[in-house]
From TrEMBL:
Keywords: Cell membrane, Membrane, Transmembrane, Transmembrane helix, Transport. One of its GO terms (cellular component) is ATP-binding cassette (ABC) transporter complex. Gene3D superfamilies: ABC transporter involved in vitamin B12 uptake, BtuC. InterPro entries: ABC_BtuC-like, ABC_TroCD. This is Mn-Zn_transporter_SitC. SUPFAM superfamilies: ABC transporter involved in vitamin B12 uptake, BtuC. Belongs to the ABC-3 integral membrane protein family. Pfam families: ABC-3 (PF00950).
Length: 311
């Protein structure tokens, strides 16, 4: 087993895929904590789907599948989708869940039309473009890993510098506004950081599964702690572990897709956390309930007669 892991680590392609997936897991897990605390778990899903038309337009304009060009197009349409969601929520009576559904369906529909158009255009270079829907982790190279690492480092640096502001924004935005914090700008900035996480992840897991890398590690970490800083740390570790394990499992099997395996690895950690999580896990909640009931029964004075009813 050790020899197998050593061989996998020294394989160029597998090493790049594992490192890229780990970077995605860390940044997705970190920013996902703020997303679920603000009840915006599906925000990343809408933004991921909004990247598809950007990828297609970038390919149509450039005629090449250069990753930096395609990612730039994805970033532009994802940012446009994010601003559109915020505008709909704040300028109309449409609720956030409806705004997410509108942007997700419209942008993904536009992307599907563009992919069909490209496929029928006869371009010899369009093969594989539709892999952005489900990810194409095997195509990650060293330059992609470096780019992902730089983007992730910048996003995490912003989180560190504005941690207190983002924390207050996540728990009590009204109180943050009363203290004079620029809540609107902070909200836009945090949304743009989620866009960065989506751009990092779509090449590995695709637009369909990207939301899972924002939601599942954070939801798993929430079962272990009630402190935001600790939750972010655990979520980043869970995300990295899911990415690396999914990449390695994919490398050891025949024709096993990397993106879905990364998500399944994260889901396995979620199941374990739901049962064993020290803060909110089923096992510790059950033990705490039994202990409280036993304490109540042991403190009950048997000399006091029970009187039914309320009062």
């Amino acid at each position: 087993m050790i020899d197998l892991l050593r061989d996998l680590f020294f394989d160029y392609t597998i090493r790049n895929v594992a490192l890229g997936a780990a970077i995605l897991g860390v940044v997705g897990g970190t920013l996902g904590c703020f997303a679920i605390l603000r009840r915006q778990g599906l925000f990343g899903d809408a933004l991921a789907h909004a990247t598809l038309p950007g990828v297609c337009v970038a390919f149509i304009l450039s005629g090449a599948k250069t990753p930096i060009v395609l990612m730039s197009g994805a970033a532009l349409t994802a940012g446009l989708g994010a601003l559109l969601i915020l505008t709909i929520v704040h300028r109309t009576r449409i609720k956030q869940d409806a705004a997410l559904g509108i942007v997700l369906s419209v942008f993904f529909g536009a992307g599907a039309v563009l992919i069909t158009y490209i496929g029928g255009s006869g371009s010899g270079n369009q093969s594989g473009l539709d892999r952005f829907i489900f990810g194409q982790a095997a195509t990650i190279v060293r330059d992609d890993v470096i780019t992902m690492g730089i983007l992730a480092s910048l996003a995490l640096l912003v989180v560190v510098l504005l941690f207190k502001e983002f924390k207050l924004l996540s728990f009590d935005p009204a109180f943050a506004a009363s203290l004079g914090f620029p809540v609107g700008r902070l909200n836009v900035l945090l949304t743009m950081l989620i866009v960065v996480a989506v751009i990092i992840g779509i090449q590995a897991v695709g637009v369909v599964l990207m939301a899972a890398m924002l939601i599942i590690p954070a939801a798993s970490a929430r079962q272990w702690t009630d402190r935001l800083g600790t939750m972010i740390t655990i979520s980043g570790l869970f995300g990295a572990l899911s990415g690396v394990s999914g990449a390695l499992i994919s490398a050891t099997g025949a024709n096993l897709p990397t993106g879905p395996l990364i998500v399944l690895s994260a889901t396995a950690l979620l199941v374990v956390s739901l049962f064993l999580g020290r803060s909110q896990g089923f096992l510790w909640s059950w033990i705490g309930s039994r202990r409280n009931r036993r304490n109540v029964l042991s403190n009950t004075d048997p000399s006091i007669p029970y009187r039914g009813g309320v009062g």
